[in-house]
Amino acid sequence: MQTRRGDSRLRERDDRDGVRAARDGRARQGAFSQMVISFYYGGKLVGQTATTCPEGCRLSLGQPALPGAKLYGPEGLELVRFPPADAIPSERQRQVTRKLFGHLERGVLLHSSRQGVLVKRLCQGRVFCSGNAVLCKDRPNKLERDEVVKVFDTSQFFRELQHFYNNQGRLPDSRVVLCFGEEFPDLTPLRSKLILVQIEQLYVRQLVEEASKSCGGGSLAQTPEAPQLDQFFRMFPDVCTSHQRPFFRENQQITV
């Protein structure tokens, strides 16, 4: 009788441990599936959101206006809208940004998991990117239309983070940047780029914040209220020149 009760307790404990492990596993996977998406127009933060859908999201201008209009991308994806250009102070910059919006109707699809971040360009307008999984770091990286591309490798980030804690490397960058309508990365100041979208896995972002605090709050530290592009400023020193440049170029051409 005692043996049966003992076996029953063991099974109950194993069941509880299994449920707890499954719950913790789902929580970790959920953290990796969530993304923090920040929008910059002319180098200024104009909007930020955190995704919650495990299947990913679609970055676009909004739902089709007409009943029965085609929805680009899987219907189960969370919709993340580009902020309107109304808040842009320069009239010329607003006009050029809205012109670029005309080529972004279909948008891009984003998916985040423990393996990393994937992106698929659907829109007509050209999209360029940077991220730790992008091979070419020193020249523009164009996303081909309808092609799924891995732009962030989570495992690589963890390896680099371990090297950082072992004093064998720098704090790794947790960010993916998409640039719409213009080549990127290049020597053009970031504040001259019409539309930049910064993407981070929520869990990885938190790890970077913790690592920054542990080393004295380095310049990579970010707060959800006011994310910065400090690392990109270091990548492109001309952004930090003392004289001010306009947020846009008067002869700017939108390419598709």
Task: Give an overview of the whole structure.
Strand 1 (35-41) and strand 2 form a beta hairpin. Mean pLDDT is 79; it is low at 65-69 and 217-256. This protein has a single domain (31-240), classed as Tumour Suppressor Smad4 (Sandwich). It contains five helices and ten strands, in the order H-E-E-E-E-H-E-E-E-E-H-E-E-H-H. The protein has helices at residues 2-33, 91-101, 154-165, 202-214, 230-235, and strands at residues 35-41, 44-50, 57-60, 78-81, 108-113, 116-121, 127-130, 148-153, 175-180, 195-201. The strands form two sheets. Strands 2-1-10-9-7 form a five-stranded antiparallel sheet. It has a five-stranded mixed sheet with strand order 4-3-5-6-8. It is globular and about 75 Å long. The N and C termini lie far apart (77 Å). By secondary structure, it is of the alpha+beta class.
Structural features:
10 strands; five-stranded antiparallel sheet; alpha+beta; Tumour Suppressor Smad4; 29% helix; single chain; 256 residues; Interferon regulatory factor 8 isoform X4; SMAD_FHA_dom_sf; globular
Give a brief description.
With 256 residues, the protein is an alpha+beta fold. The chain contains five helices and ten strands.
List the helices and strands and how they pair.
Elements: H1 2-33, E1 35-41, E2 44-50, E3 57-60, E4 78-81, H2 91-101, E5 108-113, E6 116-121, E7 127-130, E8 148-153, H3 154-165, E9 175-180, E10 195-201, H4 202-214, H5 230-235
Parallel strand pairs: 3-4
Antiparallel strand pairs: 1-2, 1-10, 3-5, 5-6, 6-8, 7-9, 9-10
